[in-house]
Prior knowledge:
The complex is a heterodimer.
Chain A: H1 2-29, H2 34-39, H3 45-55, H4 61-73, H5 87-122, H6 127-141, H7 144-158, H8 174-208, H9 211-218, H10 223-252, H11 255-260, H12 266-275, H13 279-307, H14 309-314
Helix pairs in contact in A: 1-13, 5-6, 5-8, 5-10, 5-13, 6-8, 7-8, 8-10, 9-10, 10-13, 12-13
Chain B: E1 4-13, E2 16-26, E3 31-36, H1 42-50, E4 57-65, E5 68-69, H2 75-81, E6 86-89, H3 103-115, H4 119-132, H5 151-163, E7 169-173, H6 181-197, E8 201-206, H7 209-215, E9 218-223, E10 226-232, H8 233-239, H9 243-252, E11 270-281, E12 291-303, E13 308-312, H10 319-326, E14 334-339, E15 342-343, H11 349-358, E16 359-362, H12 376-380, H13 393-406, H14 423-435, E17 441-445, H15 453-470, E18 473-478, H16 481-487, E19 490-495, E20 498-504, H17 505-510, H18 515-523, H19 527-538
Parallel strand pairs in B: 3-8, 3-9, 6-7, 7-8, 13-18, 13-19, 16-17, 17-18
Antiparallel strand pairs in B: 1-2, 1-4, 4-5, 9-10, 11-12, 11-14, 14-15, 19-20
Amino acid sequence: MTAFILKRLGIGLATLVLASIVVFAVMEILPGDPAQLMLGFNATEDALQALRNEMGLNDPVLWRYFAWVGGMLIGDFGNSYTYSSPVIELIGERAIVSLPLAVISLILSTLIAIPVGMFAAARRGSVADTSVMGVTQLGVAIPNFWFALLLIYLFAVWLRLVPAGGFPGWSGGIWPGVRSLLLPAVALALPQAAILARVTRSAMLEVLGEDYIRTARAKGMPRRVVLWRHALRNALIPVLTIMGLQFAFLLAGTIIIENVFYLPGLGRLVFQAITQRDLIVVEGVVMLLVASVVIVNLAVDLTYALVDPRLRARA
Amino acid sequence: MSLLEIENLKLSIGDTPILKDIDLTLETGEVMGLVGESGSGKSMTALTVMQLLPHAAKASGRVTFDGIDILAAPEDAMNRLRGDDIGMVFQEPMTALNPVKTIGEQVAEGIRWHTGASRANAEARARAILDRVGLPERQFPLTRYPHELSGGQRQRVVIAIACALKPKLLIADEPTTALDVVLQAQILELLRDLVQEDRMGLLLISHDLAVVTDMADRVTIMRHGEVMETGETARTLSQQKHPYTRQLAEASVHVPDRRTKAGTDAEPLLQVTGAEKDYPIRRTSLFGPPRHFRAVDGVSFSLAPGQSKALVGRSGCGKSTLARMILALDHPTGGSIRFDGTELTGRTEAELKPSRRNMQVVFQDPYGSFNPRHKVERLVAEPLHLLEPQPSPADRRDRVAQALVDVGMSPADMDKYPHEFSGGQRQRLSIARAVITRPRLIVADEPVSALDVSIRAQILDLFADLNQRLGVAYLFITHDLTVARAITDQVLVMHEGRIVEEGDTNRVFDNPRSDAARALVEAAPDLERAIARRLAAAQ
């Protein structure tokens, strides 16, 4: 087991190094001079040169790469050109919105998807199964911003249960924060739940055809009990894989929903940084996202081993 | 009133009739053998009693167990019966247990479900029944997972689950078909003892007449969803009144007509000298030296042209590994394998090509060894790529046609797809594929063990015929001594990677000298001996 964890950590680390090289290289190739952007097009060549020197843009490439990586290792992601504040602070401010949003969405989506998928699998081919799968098809197809607008109209404008957008911060207590994240979380969770429910259903169907399900039924346990006790855990591996991918997406791919609900999250930070050529911020956020994907994958791999003793033995 | 009474049972799945007017009774403490070939409806009869039929199945007639009308019983009532009063053991032990639950959980689960016992109490009872089925606590604590157990051990766990609550009726559906003969004998003995101890009724389903004769008080013989004959075992099988019973009995002891080849003075076709194969074992420590498992250990033998030799041994003894090395599909760790005067070890694929065309293989499973999307012509013609120069398309078709005729099929079959053929026909196709290059050696890995006895007899005849007509030599890998006797002149007995005995097939089996050979012979079901024992016991 220790060897397994060490190996996974090694792979994760290698992924990070590779990602850092790619991110750095891409940023080098991109057109646009940050110094010019900061000072505007009327700046003198002397001023530009001075700023470039100050920002280290004239140093050799390798030197800049190692300075950047070394800085990140000690938590120094550099300073943003446009916000004039440390990147790590910017990320921190946004992460306290994005991270809870992703976690709430994932919990919501799992709580909806797994029972729905199991329900459909248990009644394969029935009207209930067909209609549930039809709804999930719709869930996959509907764009989440449109769904988000619908939610705002219903719950914020009409019923006035939650705010229509914005984020009050966590200083006023947990509830106001969570309240303003609820609608965006639902808007994010439902399409994810639709995908996850379909994955759960097909994984369950495969497992339900296995011999050990028949053995369990021959013990005299009703179908429902066999479903939860014997089938679910065996069906979890593909479900966990998808959940891992979805969590990574929820962390970074939420820019549209963040815009619809006017949330100061990581997605918007990255978007603004790209439009303003604030490369240091882009690099920092991308590396952070790569790191979180690596961590999530590591967690998923470890969960596999928890779920399936055969993987534990092989590990 | 009998424990189990089945009257006029009809079953259909969709519009397909599966069972027609089945009648069967089973008394408390009685062993009933249910015999038939695949598709005869034996398993469906059992699943009807359990009410674990596929969704589309519709049953009518009357099935009563212990006075309860099974066909009319609501699901709740069936749940109370299953696992408590009726236990069931299935065919495939490798997949019958949940891979993510410990054996303790899986045995205790049914006990808790039916008796409401506490966890500790149920685990104590699970421990007791696992001890009883031969899985002692020292080696097999409750915390073991199924993947840590062998097939025979897993089948013992399945039996423990089925017998944990001392059911009145135990249904065993081909409980030993997936196991080797020695394990089969052990599992059958365990079942017999358990049934006697608790006076269970046992419905033993099998395609193997010898197994059923040894175990059952009465037999019911089924074919195409109908009962052909039913009666007391000794009388039914000794008199063989019903033509189908006679046909089954004859097929299961069938010996093809063939002359034995003497010509051992000729240059050997295949010469294996000191062959070894090591497989790495997963390291237990990160820094320890890599460890190996020796699957084949210093095996030497030779095979003359046209000779038929059996390679017998228990599962995992290294038979298949040895065969793979002879076929140059696996590199030996040591030793030499010469085929037709050419050394095979250490050759490149291009250098092996001429040898490959002279040796072909027939596998066990006629379903898994064909690509379902290709037509027979393409499938049978596969080995022709070994020929040089390449035959023309017309020549290819001629050769395929000839190969199909060789195996008793029609040239017109070459435009069909594999799914259009039965299991026996598919095995003929795989033999056609093997003979198309006119090889001098065919390695056959359990080529008839997936087939019904009557089909098996025909395929054995075909092997014998090809041996006579084409002079092809066989290496027959099998765990079935009846098959080895029927088709081979010489036998090699393999045990834990070594050849422990060799000689004339009949002489070795009549008078085995090594422990391994003796264990195989004693465990092997033999219909004639079983009938004789039954008759002796009856008098």
